[in-house]
Design a protein that fits this description.
globular; alpha+beta; Alpha-Beta Plaits; single chain; two-stranded antiparallel sheet; repeat; metal ion binding
């Protein structure tokens, strides 16, 4: 699954620089995650780095973007230009 930032976000700015895929950006009110770029850090780390650093635990799985670990791995390879 891609991740989503809930409205509990306090705009602390710690998640954005931690994302290896640059999937996190400032939205109109809170940070947002681009599901096309989010691999939950599969291919980079064992756990999503944004979740690890979030001080208010406002990042969770997006129920509208259900993806398996294999699909996330495939997305990682596509984003990195690997086959």
């Amino acid at each position: 699954m891609a991740l989503i930032i809930t409205d509990e976000c306090i705009n602390c700015d710690v998640c954005e620089p931690e994302c290896p895929n640059e999937a996190i950006s400032q939205g109109e009110e809170i940070y947002i995650i681009n599901p096309a770029l989010c691999t939950e850090c599969v291919g980079h780390y064992d756990v999503p780095q944004c979740v690890e650093v979030c001080p208010v635990d406002c990042i969770s799985s997006d129920p509208n973007m259900v993806e398996s670990k294999e699909q996330l791995q495939e997305k990682y390879h596509a984003l990195m230009g690997k086959q």
